[in-house]
Amino acid sequence: MAGYKETPRQKMIAMMYLVLTALLALNVSKEILEAFLVVNESMESTNESLSARIEGRYAKFDQQYKMNKDKVEPYWQKAQTIRTQSNDLIAYIDQLKFELVKVSERKTDAEVKALFYKDTIINGKPASMLMLSEVETKDKYNATTNYLVRPNNKGEAYELSARMKSFRGTVLTTMNLPETDTKIGLFTNEEGHTYRDADGQKQNWEQHNFYRTILAADVTILNKIIGEVKSAEYNAINYLYGSVSEKDYKFDNVSARVIPRSTYVLKGEKYEAEILVAAFDSKSKPDVRVLNGADKLTDKNIGRAKLITGEAGVVKLEFPANKEGPQKYAGQIEMIDPATNQTVSYPFSGGYIVAPPALIVAPLKMNVFYIGVDNPVAISSPGLADESIKSSIDVGTLKKGKDGDWVVRINKKPKGVSKVYISASAKVGDKDLSLGKKEFRIKRVPDPTAEIAGQTGGQMDKNTLLAAAAIIPNMKDFEFDLYFEVTSYTFATIVNGDWLPKNVRGNRFTGEINSIIKSGKRKQKFFFENIQAKGPDGTTRVLNPINLEIR
Q1: What is the pLDDT of residue 270?
Q2: Calpha distance 52→48 (Å, rounded)
Q3: 519, 512, 466, 513: which is closest to 496 by C-alpha?
């Protein structure tokens, strides 16, 4: 268009177009500014409302702390840390807003305070709010951008993001939340959060929010961050207060409970029990009034009741067990109801039995101890745990098996001894209490019965006899699992009128004996005599003879 000369009419049209464009741009700018003003005022009102809710929660927290310091203090201390850090961060952001107006307007501190803050009432309390409508440079960004975002990560925006990240970390740790949790805001440059400009180029959080952002937008964004700080603080305080409430007493349905160490008490010892309310609290110190021998605590007998102060929410109860037979007691738990701060009583009653010491030693299979075998026995005492009982035997050995029962082993009978004694004691409290002793007879294992194919005599088929092929010692009607070993025997028969004996070692038929049996005739008799067998106790027994006739 070089060298082209416009007519006066064309110049006028172009000038009017430029003026119209400028007017249109000016109207849009005013609308945007007005929107920022509206949003900012709404944010400040919301923040003040949230502040009131936070203060209400702190007031309840302080009330619980005064009523039960030992219980609430760990959570209350964490709440104070959150409160201090939140206040510090909000104070920093408020000062940051003040400095932005100051650098943008180029005014003194006094001028900023006089011109741009105005007292108002929010939620019934006086508050100070920045009146953006009175700021002349609210649509400018050069001074504020230079203050907030400068090259090489300089500027107050970077200090702001660091403080936000620190406070966010405190809240997450307090609430036991992971770093990636999205419930708590205050995100800046955390991993997984990407910021881009209008052209799609990556930015950091500071540039994305405050680079070439007009003052009105800066203030609105800062008020939004204040809202996130207060919201995070409110969530953290609710979490801490809820941690106290989860373990608090529920007095809408509370009953007393008595947990005795044992309802069966040995004479000379003490009855012990723990008394607690259903809503158990390890940090409370309940008082208990208890009267031994009473069915119920009344106005008439309460003066004779014993007062006991509990520790860690538990009251330990002890009575001397000097009298045998059923015993009873009654009382009441006295506690402070945190809802009303009044003393509340919960009645209880209980009973126990006092019995003399007793020892039970029961043989599990036979009523004697047999020599050379394991004799299982059960040793116990009513009202005592098996693991608390210690036992001993005066002859042989007494050991505890894998299944919890005991095993008596007597390998050899001492001369002149026909009885054995088992004694027991138990650890009751701090003392070893004797439970007494029991007497048992000592006997050797009975002789087995020698059999061939299950018979001790009579007729037998030749093939059955050959198939048996051995003498078997059988322990009939004996409960122990043990075996005798036949070491030798004498075989004999009559052949052509001659007595034909054969001595054999072991219990099996020899080849020669099998040949004799095979050639045997009907009605021919075979004799198995002098049968020697060795038992588990090492002794050799002579067993019964076996006389068989070929059928």
Answers
A1: 75
A2: 6
A3: 519
Domain annotation covers residue 83: yes
Instruction: Determine, yes or no, domain membership for 7.
Output: no
- Residue that terminates a domain, selected from 246, 280, 307: 246
Rounded to whole angstroms, the Cα distance separating 364 from 375 reads 8
Closest CA to 218 of 292, 165, 142: 142
Torsion of Cα atoms, 133 then 134 then 135 then 138, to 10°: 20
Q: Which helix (H) or strand (E) holds 216?
A: helix 215-246
For residue 6, the Cα-to-chain-centroid distance in whole angstroms is: 90
pLDDT tens digits, 136-183:
777 788 888 888 888 787 888 898 888 988 998 898 888 888 887 777
Position 126 pLDDT exceeds 50: no
Q: How many secondary structure helices (H) and strands (E) does the chain include?
A: 9, 28
Could you tell me the CA-to-CA distances from 496 to 493, 499, 521, 524 in Å, in that order?
A: 10, 9, 11, 11
Residues 6+ apart with CB under 8 A from 470: 452, 486, 507, 508, 509
* Contact by Cβ (8 Å): 348, 332: yes
From CA 406, how far away is CA 399, in angstroms rounded?
6
Q: Which two tokens stand for residue 182?
A: 């999205």
Q: Kindly calculate the radius of gyration of the chain based on its CA atoms and give it in whole angstroms.
A: 50
- At residue 512 the predicted structure's pLDDT band, cuts being 50, 70 and 90, is very high
* Residue-level length of the chain: 551
- Number of structural domains (the chain) is 4
Q: Are residues 241 and 274 in the same domain?
A: no
Q: Which domain holds residue 164?
A: 17-246
Output the six-digit token pair for 513.
């004996």
Task: Decide which of 444, 472, 495 is a domain's last residue.
Answer: 444
